[in-house]
């Protein structure tokens, strides 16, 4: 999917939290959005998913204007969102979490669903455990798998490494790099090394505005650090 955001503005009351935000993600590429706490990253993702209506601007999926679409319609069109805090169903088992997402998208029981679950071996081990009984890292793997079984064309991740132990961060990184090419990824991340290992391009948000943008190969670690160091 070619995904584009144009001139997005968003306010909370009279406070403007997004200002003329615009960027594009090419099919099969990963764009990382970096920025300090409060820069507007989560607000941007909520506007993209239709959980917040932007005050101005457009969201385009393969040149189709999706700005007024419901979250459900966006999801059916191929957007999948893994929010910060993961929001899995704590009362349902791992298997039921996966099944609910896959059934809603008509992918339940397909080989692709089995393949997705196999990316995260711990999910099979924990299949009958309730989501709420999993560790943070296991819940993050479940949240990503649940998004992937919908067979999205754009996977949107809000700080997937936050509070996660290094070996699971490494596994998530491997999975994302493997998926690139097949789908596009929008990654909001504060962990710079993870973003550098994963992204093809960067956008840096500061106080709701894009202050820097570029291809990964043109962005040194030192350069990126300057924008996000406290
Ligand atoms: N529901 C809300 N009502 C009012 N202000 C809000 C609300 N949610 C966020 N804000 C404010 O909007 C600004 C952007 O918040 P947002 O959560 O989008 O930033 P962020 O870059 O995702 O930060 P973090 O990394 O801390 O999640 C911040 O100043 C925040 O305090």
How would you describe what is shown here?
The protein is of the alpha/beta class and about 230 residues long. It has 2 domains: about 160 residues, Rossmann fold (3-Layer(aba) Sandwich), CATH 3.40.50; about 70 residues, no CATH class. About 35% of the residues lie in helices and about 25% in strands. It has 9 helices and 10 strands. It has a 6-stranded mixed β-sheet, sandwiched between helices. The protein starts with a strand and ends with a helix. The relative contact order is 0.19. The mean pLDDT is about 95. Adenosine-5'-triphosphate binds next to helix 1.
Question: How are the SSEs placed, and which strands pair?
Answer:
Blueprint (H helix, E strand, L loop, with lengths): L2 E10 L2 E11 L4 E5 L6 H9 L6 E6 L2 E2 L5 H6 L2 E4 L11 H11 L6 H8 L2 H5 L10 H13 L5 E5 L7 H14 L4 E5 L3 H7 L2 E6 L2 E7 L5 H8 L2
Parallel strand pairs: 3-8, 3-9, 6-7, 7-8
Antiparallel strand pairs: 1-2, 1-4, 4-5, 9-10
Helix pairs in contact: 3-6
The structure holds adenosine-5'-triphosphate.
Query: What's the CATH topology label of the largest domain?
Result: Rossmann fold
Overall shape: it is globular
The CATH class assignment of the largest domain is: Alpha Beta
What's the total helix number?
Answer: 9
Residue runs with pLDDT of under 50 for 5 or more positions: none
Distance N to C terminus: 34 Å
């Amino acid at each position: 999917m070619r995904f584009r955001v144009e001139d997005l503005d968003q306010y909370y009351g009279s406070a403007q939290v997004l200002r003329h935000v615009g960027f594009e993600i090419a099919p099969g590429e990963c764009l990382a959005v970096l920025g300090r706490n409060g820069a507007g990253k989560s607000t941007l993702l909520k506007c993209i998913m239709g959980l917040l209506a932007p005050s101005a601007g457009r969201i385009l999926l393969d040149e189709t204007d999706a700005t007024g679409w419901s979250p459900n319609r966006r999801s059916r069109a191929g957007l999948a969102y893994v929010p910060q805090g993961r929001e899995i169903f704590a009362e349902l088992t791992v298997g039921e979490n996966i099944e609910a997402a896959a059934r809603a998208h008509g992918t339940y029981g397909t080989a692709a669903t089995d393949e997705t679950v196999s990316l995260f071996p711990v999910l099979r081990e924990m299949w009958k455990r309730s989501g709420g009984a999993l560790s943070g890292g296991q819940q993050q793997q479940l949240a990503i798998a649940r998004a992937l079984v919908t067979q999205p064309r754009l996977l949107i991740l809000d700080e997937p490494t936050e509070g996660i132990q290094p070996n699971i961060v490494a596994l998530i990184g491997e999975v994302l790099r493997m998926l690139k090419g097949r789908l596009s990824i929008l990654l909001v991340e504060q962990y710079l090394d993870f973003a550098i290992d994963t992204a093809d391009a960067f956008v840096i948000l500061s106080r709701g505005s894009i202050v820097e943008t570029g291809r990964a190969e043109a962005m040194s670690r030192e350069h990126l650090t300057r924008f996000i160091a406290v």
